[in-house]
Specification:
The complex is a heterodimer. Chain A has a single domain, classed as Fumarate Reductase Cytochrome B subunit, CATH 1.20.950. By secondary structure, chain A is mainly alpha-helical. Chain A contains 6 helices and 2 strands; from the N terminus they run αααββααα. In chain A, strands 1-2 form a two-stranded antiparallel ribbon. In chain A, α1 packs antiparallel against α2, α2 packs across α3 and α3 packs antiparallel against α4. By secondary structure, chain B is α+β, with helices and mostly antiparallel strands. Chain B has a single domain, classed as Catalase HpII,  Chain A, domain 1 (Beta Barrel). In chain B, 30% of the residues lie in helices and 23% in strands. In chain B, strands 1, 2, 3, 4, 6, 7, 8, 10, 11 and 12 form a 10-stranded antiparallel beta sheet that branches. Chain B has a two-stranded antiparallel sheet with strand order 5-9. In chain B, α2 crosses α8. The chains are: A mainly alpha, B alpha+beta. The interface between A and B is large, with 44 and 50 residues.
Amino acid sequence: MNATSERFTPLQRLLHWVMAICILSMLFIGVGFASTITPKYLPLVAAHKTLGIAILVLALIRLGVRVRYGAPRLPVNLPTPMKLAAQLSHYALYALMIGMPLLGWGMLSAAGYPVVLYWNIRLPQILPLNAALHTVLWNAHFYLAFAFYALILMHIAAALFHGLILWDGVFGSMAPAPSRVKVVAAE
Amino acid sequence: MTKPLISPGNSKLGALAFIAAVIAVAAAGFAFTAGWLSPNRLTAGKLVAALAPPGGPALGHRRNHAKGICFIGTFDSNGDGTELSRSQVFTRGQYPALGRFNLGTADPNAPDSTVRIRGMGLQIATPDGEEWRTAMIDAPVFPVSTPEEFYRLLEALRSKDPDAVKDFAAKQPEFAVFGKWASSAPWTASYAEERFNSLDAFTFVNGSGIEHAVRWSLLPQAKVTPITDSDLTKLGPDYLEQEIAERVGKAPQRWTMVLTVASPGDQTSDPSKAWPADRRTVTVGTLVVERIEAERDGPCRDINFDPTVLPNGIQVSDDPFPAARSAAYAKSYDLRTAEVRDYPYHMKTATGAKP
């Protein structure tokens, strides 16, 4: 037996897929508003801030759930470099899910902008006005966004690799519904 | 009985090709959204770059309206604006104001008499935690109708073709109204004698949820003494900043804030076209400028007077400029705050130029 039949809990799977939609939308909205001066710039920016805070809240809940329920073990025969890559990429994804919204919020605060979300929800500024600090946070937010998307593409490629080529149950452990691949692979 | 998504009979190469295709499509979609595949898309970066003088931008400074001086004061609201907007800034009371008098130039060293457009950035804060920011100019109308036309105007101004601006003006009839003002309106020798106008129309929402399109102006209470630009030249290259510091040092300076309300059917999307002169106006309060501070390390330097920072009760209208200005101002802010070390740029060059 070289596959795992364990799955993430339904709550973990729900959080994963809801956040997947949020984060992908977020990254596209981010590069989208940064490339336009048309009137849609303003609603895109508002959506970006709102989604960012939603992702921060969901990520913190998800971290708590992960600590509480853990994750299915990776297949025992998975080569060590792949295991290491899986573990490190998951640490990085959690760090980015929590860190990116905080960097964005901090960046707006350091620039003295009021932090206004959709529905006129107003958040406090979490840092004092400081141009140098703004620049550090802006750069981090900007460059990490591309790293985040690259990491997500790697994550998708790895998930499909598990699901279509290795058939080791890793894909099924997070799939919304039990996968047929897992059954075959486990035989 | 169940089958894998890809049967073992198919090559693993097929699966790998599928994965590669998924990733390639995802990456291409991202690149398209980011505008990397659309070099003709007008971005904030392009707009801001087009503002730069031939020698490049003045590092550390605002990319436009680069020459300016900070002020601190109070907005004294008379309560009459509550009819039009539910924002606390219109309820009777006094609210802290912070702002910046400026010249519409990308060159922080430009002599005062070489710059036709004067502006005021203003931020009013209210106890409910909201802020109203606005950036106004003294011209009665904006030179062009759309942000895209503004970009073409900047290109014409930068063009080596001596007829570029003339050709632009010929194609854009609304430019003539601005041009007439620029060539014939009297100059003044003081920021305190200038009228500052929002030009853009915003939607005001009152306590009952009723909306009105509004433009606002700050009318000087100081006596206006016209002067020619040649007489202004004789007063010195930085006279306006010296004069306003001296004048406010003697006594606070005041502007009356007046809202102009559109009538039903008035267009609200084109700041190059003034509304008819008989439109209803509401005087809502007085801006009192109490103290002048140098921009260097002054309270206005690191503030972006983004006209879309609005309190609940004021919204953008169908005027496309506030969104474009917000994007461009943010770009300018991100650039200049990253150049903090270069900020006293004009000090260095000024020292180098002097004997």
